From TrEMBL:
Domain Glycosyltransferase subfamily 4-like N-terminal: 94-272
Record SUPFAM superfamilies: UDP-Glycosyltransferase/glycogen phosphorylase
PANTHER family per UniProt: GLYCOSYLTRANSFERASE (PTHR46686:SF2)
Stored Pfam families: Glyco_transf_4, Glycos_transf_1
Residues spanning the membrane: 20-37
Keyword entries, A-Z: Glycosyltransferase, Membrane, Transferase, Transmembrane, Transmembrane helix
Domain Glycosyl transferase family stretches: 298-436
GO MF annotations, alphabetized: glycosyltransferase activity
Name under which the protein is recorded: Uncharacterized protein LOC110419905
Organism for this UniProt entry: Herrania umbratica
Length: 483
């Protein structure tokens, strides 16, 4: 070690480059190996795995599957919860984390729990605090429109002094880890972890750098390893950890080395009363937006139209497909820089802009298959489960967080490796199957989504989790009141 250290001092840049590249290569290889074998292990038959979990009996802290698959009974004990969230949705533009937060906390408040949310408006504009029944939303912004943690904690301490919170919950690092250490009872829901982000960076480099005449330095990929190490070090600052996919839960236990009993899986859910199967609404939507009646197949994509959501991948794959299959049509819902690029593809593409939840439900009903081309294999994209609720099959990359939690069987849709060639082949499979097969797959998706991805089941699971953390009596399952 001494000799190695001495050599580094005499030629620090060269030694650092060799050591760092070696570490990075090993990290990428091990990461890729783990993440690529994960989908192979997650191949249960539809619904049978959920049925097996429903027969679970014991301590909920020992579960290694989503709490959503269990059926919790009515609860009469009320909670007082403090919540830290990145932003609070004001219009149709916010991303999934914000919409998830609003759906969850409104549902918990409706169940009689006292919820206090410390956040900022998603539009970064001044707004009055929200007080609607049991739901209280406090906007504590700094000059840049982000959460002012000191101000948020002042409000938090004032409310806590008038009756202590039963538990504190943060959406990812909305409550910084150095603040979390000061809070005795805190749980965090992770919507993305750096172990998965390394996977993202790898695919972005492979896809986008290959299109460059002179490949760019892999700077972001090199920065990922130190950030991963830092994240693993500060994760124990949070007492309990909630993951929104099975694969993330495995990573936190096996790689981040967190205690199994401190890691729990609760899947995201969407409002099942807003995202519904409604073919007539889909027909009206297509007429309103001028979708030609003679198209053979309508595909759809929704979300922020930015690079890391995979739009360069879809752009290239779809432009390839239309050269052979002229009757295929693409509806693009969302806003962002790639909207203009899509409009350049010609009459087979319609860019709709951002849609509100009601319009989104109509959009899903108007398509035959939903495409999520994301290059970000982290979290649990709400658009996938919204489309499934509306009875649509999905076409998505084969990331562990997706195939291990959402597309758990081929009857729910199609997966591909995140490259143009694999994507094109998957699109061809969709076209060969045609509308009738897609409709059958869509009904299977709807049944599965209703069993796992509803706001009701999500809120029920979170409710039981916080009750369990407050009183271990609620950690036992089933209780006499459970269904």
């Amino acid at each position: 070690m001494g000799v190695r250290h001495q050599n580094c001092r005499s030629s620090s840049s060269g030694c650092f480059s060799i050591r760092y590249s070696t570490i990075l290569t090993l990290a990428i290889l091990s990461t890729s190996f783990y993440l690529f074998i994960s989908p192979v292990r997650h191949v249960p038959e539809p619904f049978s795995w959920a049925a097996g979990q429903a027969r679970f009996s014991g301590d909920l802290r020992d579960t290694k599957f989503p709490w959503n698959s269990l059926c919790f009974g009515q609860n009469y004990e009320k909670l007082k919860l403090a919540v830290f969230s990145k932003t609070w949705p004001i219009d149709a533009a916010p991303g999934g984390m914000e919409r998830h937060a609003a759906t969850l906390y409104k549902a918990l408040a409706a169940r009689g729990h006292e919820i206090h949310v410390f956040t900022v408006p998603s539009d970064r504009k001044p707004h009055l605090d929200i007080h609607e029944g049991n739901l209280h939303v406090y906007f504590a912004a700094n000059d840049h429109g982000s959460v002012n943690c000191s101000l948020a904690f002042e409000i938090f301490n004032t409310i806590n002094a008038n009756g202590a919170f039963d538990y504190v919950h943060t959406e990812s690092v909305s409550l910084p880890h150095w603040r979390a250490k000061m809070v005795p009872n805190v749980a965090v829901t992770w919507h993305g972890i750096w172990y998965e982000i390394m996977h993202s960076k790898l695919f972005e480099e492979l896809l986008l750098n290959s299109q460059e005449v002179s490949p760019r330095p892999v700077g972001e990929l090199q920065e990922a390893m130190p950030r991963l190490v830092d994240e693993i070090r500060f994760f124990p600052s949070y007492t309990q950890h909630i993951c929104i996919s099975n694969s993330a839960g495995e990573v936190l236990v096996n790689i981040y080395q967190l205690p199994q009993r401190n890691v729990h899986v609760i899947l995201n859910g969407v409002d099942e009363t807003k995202f519904v199967h409604d073919p007539e609404a889909g027909i009206r939507f297509k007429k309103t937006h001028g979708v030609p009646e003679n198209v053979s197949l309508v595909m759809g994509v929704a979300g922020r139209l930015v690079r890391d959501k995979g739009h360069p991948l879809l752009y290239k794959a779809f432009s390839t497909i239309t050269k052979t299959y002229a009757g295929v049509y693409l509806l693009v819902a969302g806003s962002g820089p790639w909207g203009k690029r899509y409009s350049e593809l010609g009459p087979n593409v319609k860019v709709l802009g951002a849609l509100n939840p009601k319009e989104l439900s109509e959009f899903y009903n108007a398509i035959d298959v939903f495409i999520n081309p994301t290059l970000r294999p982290q979290g649990l994209d709400l658009t996938l489960i919204e489309a499934m609720h509306c009875g649509k099959p999905v076409l998505t990359p084969n990331y562990p967080s997706i195939v291990g939690t959402v597309v758990v069987n081929k009857s729910f849709g199609y997966t591909f490796s995140p490259n143009v060639e694999s994507f094109v082949e998957a699109l061809k499979s969709v076209i060969r199957d045609g509308p009738k097969v897609l409709q059958s797959k869509g009904m299977a998706c709807r049944e599965y989504a209703l069993s796992m991805f509803t706001a009701t089941k999500m809120a029920s699971a979170y409710e039981r989790f916080f009750l369990c953390m407050k009183n271990t009596r609620f950690c036992q399952y089933p209780l006499p009141t459970d269904c």
